[in-house]
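ARCHIVE CARD
CATEGORY: sequence design from structure
SOURCE FIELD: tokenized fold
FIELD CONTENT:
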């Protein structure tokens, strides 16, 4: 070992054994050279090495001191708002881990429902004239996809332009951008109750207070919404006008009109999150079809109807709102996935997406009819006649605990989604289950329900 190595090792041992404690001042270069009988250059080299290793700190005018121990990442107790947010998405963790043989509570259809939806779009086809598919593209998202989205909504009678659309990494990313941009800790918003539990987790994490609006067969309870709007003066109301998750209910015309009227009277914006907007023959009324986007921010996605691996969604709103959200998207993720957006645009333009939706809709209608028949045979009733989406809500008989039922089902390898996860107010819940219509024809689930409560 050189003299520098020896001096570094000697000081490092003193720090490790506690002879030199954090914050202790080391000898000056001159004093250290005399103490250790080495040259000042040797001391300088040794101190420089210890600084580089993070064991000592050099401060201008104060010499060298022993560094304070670093606080390792992950060692501290997580803040309460993060713990609550993680706890509220434990249902999502069960869906991602896929440890259950029968997945009635899953949010996605089985992969067999997407057979035939092959991606056959070569990269060279996506390279448009004068464009490179590997580039970032516009901060608003892929222009061609936004044009196609605008055209589809125009067919539904909603006048919008592509400049009112910003693409995202799925619907949840869209919700996250809205929360980050327009809400601050301590703000109050309204949500559906029962409602979309990943939204609740996002609001908890952002330390935003949310209050549940009772959700009925035809949408939110307008009297309850009016009361809460007057009491809390919310900035936003998060809802779903069509095929709501988890109840499957859709707004009728009077309810949709009432929501927009109250939004105008109480000066709040409505965030309409609709993952099933592309499915044909909707059984309700979209908010934007009545009032445009004066009071509405619409969140759509292709992740539910195509594949969860396609994290592609979009937001439609007034032009100034989409521009603000696009700026935030640049700050947080630079841009969304232009390559994936080009693939989806090609699927839409080639009509493969439309054919897939038609097939999917027919399967959903058939599965919904069978579910109603099966539940009726067990003496059970769905709260709402299933619409075109994936979900139905089953109210359980008095005295039946949905959480106990879910625990018993788990022992049989069956994954159920109890109402606890979807309740905005955990102290006010009725026992129920969110059922995924695409998965409820499994004989193991029906046998379990017949044995337990049928």
């Amino acid at each position: 070992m050189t003299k520098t190595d020896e001096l570094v090792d000697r000081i490092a041992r003193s720090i490790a054994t506690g002879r030199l404690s954090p914050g202790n001042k080391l000898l000056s270069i001159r004093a250290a050279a005399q103490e250790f009988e080495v040259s000042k250059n040797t001391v300088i080299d040794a101190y420089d090495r210890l600084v580089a290793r993070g064991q000592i700190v050099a401060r201008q005018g104060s010499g060298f001191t022993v560094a304070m121990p670093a606080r390792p990442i992950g060692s501290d107790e997580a803040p309460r708002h993060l713990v609550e947010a993680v706890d509220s998405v434990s249902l999502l963790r069960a869906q991602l881990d896929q440890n259950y043989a029968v997945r009635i509570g899953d949010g996605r259809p089985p992969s067999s429902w997407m057979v035939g939806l092959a991606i056959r779009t070569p990269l060279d086809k996506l390279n448009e004239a004068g464009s490179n598919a590997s580039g970032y593209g516009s901060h608003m998202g892929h222009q061609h996809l936004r044009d196609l989205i605008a055209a589809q909504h125009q067919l539904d009678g909603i006048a919008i332009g592509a400049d009112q659309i910003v693409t995202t990494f799925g619907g949840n990313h869209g919700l996250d951008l809205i929360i980050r941009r327009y809400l601050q800790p301590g703000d109050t918003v309204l949500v559906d109750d029962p409602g979309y539990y990943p939204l609740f987790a996002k609001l908890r994490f952002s330390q935003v207070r949310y209050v549940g609006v009772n959700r009925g067969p035809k949408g939110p309870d307008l009297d309850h919404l009016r009361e809460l709007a007057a009491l809390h003066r919310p900035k936003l109301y998060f809802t779903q006008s069509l095929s709501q998750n988890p109840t499957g209910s859709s707004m009728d015309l009077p309810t949709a009109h009432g929501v927009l009227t109250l939004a105008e009277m109480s000066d709040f914006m409505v965030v309409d999150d609709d993952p099933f907007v592309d499915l044909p023959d909707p059984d309700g009324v979209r908010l934007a079809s009545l009032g445009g986007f004066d009071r509405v921010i619409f969140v759509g996605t292709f992740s539910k109807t195509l594949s969860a691996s396609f994290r592609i969604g979009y937001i439609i709103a007034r032009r100034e709102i989409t521009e603000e959200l696009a700026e935030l998207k640049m700050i947080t993720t630079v841009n969304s996935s232009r390559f994936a957006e080009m693939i989806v645009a090609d699927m839409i333009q080639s009509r493969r997406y439309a054919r897939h939706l038609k097939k999917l809709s027919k399967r959903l209608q058939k599965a919904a009819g069978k579910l109603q028949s099966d539940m009726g045979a067990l003496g059970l009733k769905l709260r709402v006649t299933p619409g075109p989406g994936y979900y139905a809500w089953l109210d359980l008989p008095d005295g039946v605990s949905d959480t106990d039922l879910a625990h018993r089902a788990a022992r049989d390898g069956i994954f159920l989604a109890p109402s606890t996860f979807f309740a905005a107010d955990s102290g006010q819940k009725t026992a129920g289950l969110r059922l995924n219509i695409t998965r409820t024809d499994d004989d193991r689930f029906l046998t379990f329900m017949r044995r337990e409560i049928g």
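CARD ANNOTATION: The mean pLDDT is 86. The two ends are 81 Å apart (CA to CA).
SHELF: design records, drawer C
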